[in-house]
Task: structure prediction
Amino acid sequence: MLEGIKIKKLKRINDERGSFTEIFRMDWKNLFNTDLPTQANFSVSYPNTIRAWHRHKRGQNDYFIVLRGALKIGIFDEKTKEINEIISTGQDLQIIRVPGNY
Result:
């Protein structure tokens, strides 16, 4: 795994009303370190849709959470030419941290 990528399993609590999942807590220092969130986005993609590569030249760290369906994240290190692929699904809740240098 490329250095700095982190995955945190999330716990979904179900009851007769539905479910509840914590997706961000300031005390998750093993995941967020000193990162301070500046933006949160919610995105829906149609089935069989591929969203193209993108890169943050200012070093912004990204955090991904899949609530429903599946997502394949391709992470590329330009220096070593190493590629990591992470698959996440709404059935296995987790947060994936991708450092801004990839």
